[in-house]
Amino acid sequence: MVSTEQFGEFETSWCPGCGNFSIVKCLKQALADMDLAPHDILVSSGIGQAAKLPHYMLCNMFNGLHGRSMPVAQGMKMALPDMPVLCVSGDGCSYGEGGNHFLAALRRNMDLTLLVHDNQIYGLTKGQASPTSSRGHVTKAQPEGSRSDGFNPVATAVAMRASFVARAFSGEQDHLVSVIKEAVNHKGFSLVDILQPCVSFNKVNTYAWYKERTYILEDHDPTDWTAAMTLSEEFGERIPLGVIYREDKPVFGHGERLAEHKYDKNDLKAVLQSYT
Amino acid sequence: MSKQSLNIVIGGAAGQGLATIGRLLSKAVVRAGYHLLVTQKYMSRVRGGHNTFAVRLGTEPLLSGTETIDVLAALNEETLDKHSEELAKNALVVAGDDLDTKDRNALRIPFKELAPKPLFYNIVVLGVLAGAIRLDISILEELLTQTFGKKGDEILQGNLDVLRKAYDWVAEQDHEFGFDGTPKAGKGRMMVNGNEAIALGALAAGCNFVSFYPMTPATSVALSLIGKGAPLGLQYEQVEDEIAAVNMALGASYAGAKALVTTSGGGFALMEEGISLAGVSETPLVCVVVQRPGPATGMATRTEQSDLNLVVYAGHGEFPRAVFAPSDPEECFYLTHRAFDLTETYQTPVFVLSDQYLADSYRDEELFDLDGLPEIAAPLLEWKEDEYKRYALTDDGVSPRLIPGYSEALVRADSHEHDESSRITENAENRTVQNSKRLRKETGLFEEVIGPDYYGEEGADVVLMSWGSTLGACLEACERIDSKKTFGVLHFKQVYPLREEQFMDYLESAGKVIAVEGNATAQFAQLVARETGFFAQDRILRFDGRAMTWEYVLKGLTEIL
Ligand SMILES: Cc1ncc(C[n+]2csc(CCOP(=O)(O)OP(=O)(O)O)c2C)c(N)n1
Ligand code: SF4
């Protein structure tokens, strides 16, 4: 059995009280529960406070560029198709800088899990509006309030019939653990949008703000697309948590590990012959 | 017209099928045992415009394209108008009988008589051209059988009948044209263009992953790789943009794939941050950049050598790299293989820099030698020692590369500055140590540099300094120039890094050095100057979007000398 201790304890550069702490804790718990050890998984991340997560936990990792964790994760999956691949990222990273990759990944449907720490703000660059900040959200860079509508990743993913779409909250730890496990076990692309309070820069979407609004879904059928669409629009007075939508779809992939793949020289000779 | 070589130009609008005629004719020419050199010019449109497919065939190896036309096959009026100046004396014009060939030595084809449907007009032109140059018809029949055989007997027979009719029709016509070159190249040769040869070199090196976003003229590298490699297990994806392409390839490479990305200038500009990531994360990657004229969208289907600076200086921060610039398909093959060898050995990005002219230029080649290729360094799949450190300090700067998923050792790659165990750190001493470690790989790369080739007598009066696809034009110009002076060509197929001791003697002992490049600012001459302090005295530069030809070099030489 894998224990959470195997993932190590590290000093972080996160602010005391940040929602990221419980996310890394829940992730370790979920992996241990699934009996996945640090060397059993691949983690891809971008740049931002959230994206530093694999530095604060033992695992195989590729910590790459801002917004680019999804392409890296998909490359990993294509080369090591039998390994569970996780992608850890912030809302700016996934939905802003990497927005195009997010949309393409939904369509491509590889078997991997995207965990987005959605604090509705840019943390690492000190508090500018992010794609998920609501219209009117005031920051130093948006002194008159954000002039754009907030991006709704859950509704977008459901609208595109992504294979697995869930929302969780870092303040609901047991629920978060179970959602991560479900997402990793799901065959196909899984999105978990995790509401994560940024105590330093987001004075609007605080712990209290999320606590007051979020509720855990009880009898929702995630295979009902119309119901999922309606639920995914619910982000205001009430915010549903749980698996919003699930659909079994063809998964992009193959069986062979590319490190072991070698061409037969005779096959290559036949390829050359085809040019004569 | 020279008895040894013949330049057949097929011209028409996009959508008229001239590339099909050109490719079939080229293949037949190679199978007949001639040497071949194709130059394609096309416009960025799917239908219409003016395109040409020039097939130069010869009894001796051909060095470059030529501007003088011996046979002009005009699929439309515009072709006749545009190329009348380039026709050789006694050139043969082949055109439909509805076009006015202006009393030139012509074969005016009665298409309606020779073919039942316009669908077959391509084959008529092919048959007429083959008849005019007296190509053995059985070669063409076999070729058509291979090409159309899959489409059913009826379609195949239709094509064969039309071919024969057109071929025989030529024999009855009155025209003054003859070509009596005896083929000498031998049988069983390949017909490949630069991009295909890059794909083949990659496959030969074990490349099993390609991610790309389509961009002319690079797309066919990926298409050839997929076409030939996918049935053999290559994984591929056409991704959402070039940024995804490079990052996906890095993810795959980290996880054990032999990865390649391919693009042209604009796409490469988008890839730069990812190239820098390959540098700091020490992830092997071969990047093929097929140049076209810039800036920005420039001329999408034309050629230029103006992205040398972009590639040599690509990415932010400092990290080692190597850049190859093949001059022909054979070098495309061997240098791409070499690029994989270096990237796997040194775990830093390696580039193959080609251009549209070379990309689309078919040549006849000896079958590439798979047995003679060196083994390529392989990453580790097992780790039995103590703690695995992805960025362990070593004398040569190369750390043991382990693939995750095979052992309990964790493989941690990082874009930040990191210590030996991949922990993020801003420690000043560590930064110096890690950056120096990465740059130490330059010593190994430097020792492996392939020096330039020198053609001609050492200490010639005039030395042409070329790189990439311009070699043939330089050599042919030197062969043809009528001058008392002596000439030499110093040609670079690896353009970075440069190793002074491999070539300074040639430059210093030359009477005069002329840089020949397909760009407006002599980028390579400037690079040589930066690295060696030697500045070429003169330049022949072409940046009108067209390939360097021997005529262009000759004209430049005459002006300078
Ligand atoms: C190409 C690029 N642009 C900008 C940055 C600067 N940058 C780093 S993190 C970040 C935003 C982080 O916000 P988010 O992804 O929401 O993560 P958080 O820090 O809130 O967890 C930005 C803009 C960068 N590193 N790279
Ligand atoms: S800035 Fe915000 S998101 Fe970042 S660590 Fe601090 S509280 Fe967390």
UniProtKB/TrEMBL annotation, chain A:
GO terms for molecular function: iron-sulfur cluster binding; metal ion binding; oxidoreductase activity, acting on the aldehyde or oxo group of donors, iron-sulfur protein as acceptor; thiamine pyrophosphate binding. Its cofactor is thiamine diphosphate; Mg(2+); [4Fe-4S] cluster. Residues 127-136 have a biased composition (Polar residues). It holds the Pfam family TPP_enzyme_C. The keyword Phosphoprotein does not apply. Residues 126-150 are annotated as: Disordered. Residues 52-194 form the Thiamine pyrophosphate enzyme TPP-binding domain. InterPro entries: 2-oxoacid:Fd_oxidoreductase, OFOB, PFO_beta_C, THDP-binding, TPP_enzyme_TPP-bd. Residues 198-252 form the Pyruvate ferredoxin oxidoreductase beta subunit C-terminal domain. GO terms for biological process: cellular respiration; small molecule metabolic process. Keywords: Iron, Iron-sulfur, Magnesium, Metal-binding, Oxidoreductase, Thiamine pyrophosphate. The keyword Iron-sulfur applies. This is 2-oxoacid ferredoxin oxidoreductase. It comes from Pseudodesulfovibrio indicus. The lineage of its organism: Bacteria, Pseudomonadati, Thermodesulfobacteriota, Desulfovibrionia, Desulfovibrionales.
Automatic annotation (TrEMBL), chain B:
This is 2-oxoglutarate ferredoxin oxidoreductase subunit alpha. It holds the Pfam family POR_N. GO terms for biological process: response to oxidative stress. GO terms for molecular function: oxidoreductase activity, acting on the aldehyde or oxo group of donors. Residues 14-168 form the Pyruvate/ketoisovalerate oxidoreductase catalytic domain. The lineage of its organism: Bacteria, Pseudomonadati, Thermodesulfobacteriota, Desulfovibrionia, Desulfovibrionales. It comes from the Bacteria. Residues 201-433 form the Pyruvate flavodoxin/ferredoxin oxidoreductase pyrimidine binding domain.
